[in-house]
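Hi L.,

You mentioned the student needs an example of a multi-chain input paired with its predicted structure. This one should do, with 808 residues in total across all chains.
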Amino acid sequence: MEVTLRIKRFNPELDTKAHFEEYQVEVEGTDRVLDALNQIKWYQDGSLTYRRSCAHGICGSDAMRINGRNRLACKILMKDLGKKITIEPLIGFKIEKDLLVDMEDFFDAYKSVKPYLMADDAPSSGERRQSPAERARFDDTTKCILCAACTTACPITWTTDEFVGPAAIVNAHRFIFDSRDTGSGERLRILNSGSGVWRCRTIFNCTDACPRDIKVTEAIEQVKRALLYDQV
Amino acid sequence: MAYHRYDAVIVGAGGARLMAAIQLAGKANIAVVSKVYPPRSHTGAAQGGISAALGNTEEDHWEWHMFDTVKGGDYLVDQDAAEVLTREAIDAVLELEHMGLPFNRTPDGRIDQRRFGGHSRNFGEGPVRRACYAADRTGHMIIQTLYQQGIKHRVNFFDEHHLLDILFTDNDECCGVVTYEIKTGEIHVIHAKTVLIASGGYGRVFRITSNALAGTGDGVALAYRHGIPLMDMEFYQFHPTGLYKLGILVSEAARGEGGIVVNGEGEAFAARYAPTMKDLAPRDMMSRFIYQEVKEGRGIDGKDYVLLDVSHLPPEVIDEKLPDVTDFARVYLGVEPKKEGIPIQPTAHYAMGGIPTNVDGQVITSPDGAVSPGFYSAGESACVSVHGANRLGTNSLVDLVVFGRRAGRHMLQQIQETELLPLPDRPEALAESQISELLARDKGERAADIRKAMQDVMMDRVSVVRTESELLRAEREIRDLKIAFGCITIQDKGKRYNTELTEALELGCMLDCAETIIHGSLARKESRGAHYRDDYQARDDTEWLAHSLIYRTEAGMEIRKKPVTITRFEPKERKY
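Structure written out for the whole complex:
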């Protein structure tokens, strides 16, 4: 079937402001949006720019706004989108070129919650023990692929730079609720600050946007409860 | 042009480079360069597990793991290296746990383990639970955990730098790399005492592949262009269970948990070919079984695919242990694995061959094992060789952790013992001229057409089953494509994020990899592991119990044999 892709283009080397360009592409219903973008880049307009790598939803490179919603281009099929599809870069980040945005602030926010295990010395032999129930408490948040779909879907991040955003909180959650970790206090202090969890207004855009089906809002609420009621 | 000076420069995005970087962080001045952000690496796509003979759920020994690795590799494995791999796997997996990797757990809180293809108890008696796993996203958890450790240790990342060249002194000693900063188009010369290439594989030379679009063999091809031989390039693994037409991987864990592969007649045919291991026969064999079934008309509806059936497994096993792969089937094929079979076909998955190294990651340049000082490789770009003619499932993750770590440690020692070598004159010249030539040409061939033609040639003539006539044809076709590549044009002439340019550079690297795969396949007149020649169906230990080293010379490609190291296990017929 033939579809029209309406793509937001912006090349700071050439353009003063962003504009839309339309491309007609012949696709199969089972093609991914990424396949359609590749078709344009490879056969129509080589300058069209976006990030991509694994092409099956695990590397987190190709989050973008597809018909107004944050999605991975490699995880959305053409048959679910209609004949005219609007594709824009994630909002809230500086556009570097076309659909490719500056991720530095995003990774800085991630790093700010100390996303690594803080723990006492490892046992001299064998693994640290953890029961399946303890492991299950943070299973959901281990799925994060750092694609930024949640953070850039959050209206709070559109209005202020003073919020670490859902993805950073998800990754803090992954350690706060890990029975092996001893850094929860430190991370909770960070998330109790002005840029932390209290900026969240439980809008659920993040949960809707997550391509990994992480219950992002619930994770944020668990962190809030940990702060309020000392429930870790 | 920007100039940098470091003790070590590490190229690549995945687990091997991070494991090496962690050894060096804080002890040496290092730069870690990759064309994608760290968590984007293809290590993250690994699913099923990482093997180590922990014996957490049943008796196991590293010697059994070693035997399986050697036999799985059809005896082309260097057994001293396989011993290092399987011995150190135990400690390496525990180190990952100590770093925070969230493995699934046994009821008593240990790392849980499951079955995987080719992994057996007591030297082949039957399947053993050896694969340590985190649901079916083990690779994702490895890359996340190692990236987290990189952040903790303040590793200096050069993200979105594309490798353009590897630098050697006039005495052929490695002394740095040249990169292209994708964001700005600026060229960087990174001068270093040691260089580690951990840039992964080149599955994208094939049409159907599980590999990321970034899997284009950049480091492998660039080493080759500088006279470094490539080893065992004819051995390319096709994973039996890729999603039909897409190639997306469905982990062997699906069969480890009890899934079976059935043909158009509803028969679980693996038992007919491999009576002991059945569906858990190694990947090269399973791929050939599927090829044979399809060829004899027993594909689904006579087409070129079969079904992977997990519908008989308890729903909670599917949800808890195979959530991602079953989700792929739903998203991409609209199939509900709890009710119906998943259409699958073999998919190009893993390069056993690559840059030859010893067990410390040092690059080897001759059949007697002489090394190129300061030059290292680890992970899929390297060939140690622990995978021989066919890699066992889970052993790629073991490889990158064990040998990434060993390479990092050896580099630290090397850094302390050596001085920085002088760069060649105008080190950036070659890279710069390549780029300016590509940008200057206004008319010419389209890279996408050449890439597609290459992928078709490789898939149709150089995949699961090979013959001399088809290989010769492929050789001619790739030669023509290389000539056509010399006249490609790109539309984007800009400096900023010119990914059309980087894709063109990648294509050049893939064509070099393709050429060596074909050349190695033509030379090896036998069938062993993943290399199956329909015109030479038997393994020939008299002539070919040897690695092939392919050199690029003035006169063309030249092959030299390198002996296989055999310590414990004499070659035997490979039955499962």
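You could point out the following to them. Chain A has eight helices and seven strands. Chain A has a mean pLDDT of 96.

Best wishes,
N.
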